[in-house]
Amino acid sequence: MSDIRIATAEDQILLDKEAKYCSYGDTVHYIEPPRIFSRCEGSYVWDTEDQAYLDLQMWYSAVNFGYANPRLNNALKQQIDTLPQIASQYLHKGKIELSEMIAVDAKNKFGLDGRVHFNVGGSQSIEDSLKVVRNASNGKSLMFAFEGGYHGRTLGASSITSSFRYRRRYGHFGERANFIPFPYHFRGPKGMTKEEYGSHCVQQFARLFETEYNGVWDPKTNQCEYAAFYVEPIQGTGGYVIPPMNFYRELKHVLDQHGILMVSDEIQMGFYRTGKLWSIEHFDVQPDVIVFGKALTNGLNPLGGIWAREELINPKIFPPGSTHSTFASNPLGTAVGLEMFKMTSEVDYGAMVMAKGKYFLEGLQDLQKRFPIIGDVDGLGLALRCEICGPDGFTPDKATLDYMVEEGMKGDMLVDGQKLGLILDVGGYYKNVITLAPSLEISYPEIDLGLKLLEQLLVRATTR
What we know:
single chain, alpha/beta, Aspartate Aminotransferase, domain 2, 7-stranded mixed beta sheet, 5-stranded mixed beta sheet, 18 strands, 35% helix
């Protein structure tokens, strides 16, 4: 393996400026020196030395349809030449048609009438959803959320994100969450099947409503102190943890019994990452609110939003002025979103993603058989996980994964004579999980390539 890479003179000038002028509030330097990238296409990015890297995380699942996707890029370019800007208080065709597309799809799948409200990104859309559920529940500010859950880093979103690290400096402003254990079967009690553990977790949650002295329920008025339960159907930053298929159905039954709304955060898992438009579709439940963002525009012009049941968001209960963003429903974003829906409707996109995900997962399972440090692999569609552990196959090993990430970014691995780097994302409760979110347009040869590069990193990690 190579020695530590040294930045070029041109890159070093930029890095010196970054150290002086850029906020580090949104920066994580996983490697030193950090790479500076110059172009991208498909599943690859290139640095300033024109070194190629296969990207298996695609901007945290924002670029589901590949970097510089020609069709989506062209939709943006065409919109720039017609109606690139208009204040969100005014109407344009893209806003109306994209809202219709999402709402009609929800009606067909869930049997529920609803409306769409746009904003500029995931965290901002979480904030809007909090307004919707607080308004519908007469101002209740308490929420349920999951251990390992991540919903963003604005003040409201971080209050329902289970990591105290994200809100430690800022205190609480209104919302507070009661964090409930997620059915993380690999790290759950032994002796239970995955489905049994899912039921067990629901039963433990249901205990909160057995008597008034469990702290959340008034049996005399049949009222709960909590307005909603915020769920990521597949945990994202928590490590792409996939729950049992019976879990949400049983959980929703408890929520409905006690008048608690279910908000499905699809910001990272939406738009076919799991083989369906919304990941909650896998679990046979009807969400009350869906929050989306990221891949709606393939990471081009930021656009997010919420779909909510008609009873929660109709103009009588959520009137004009309830919330607002200058750039909400911007025409550049809605144009790309509409084209994305058209593109994914022309083929059985879900079946394609499920087939590729099955193939990729089988490759990970083969690596697991050959490398004992892989404690767990799992996947749903092209949301895949690979948990790196100690020699016992269970003890979390963050240090080894950090080493693998650094080695991947050296750009010095050889496959069939081609020198490549590999971009991985780190997640999980112990930061020891490779969270794999490749382009949904990834080819089978590129999946094979990714597996070969992962194998090289595992060899380096186990022989260093």
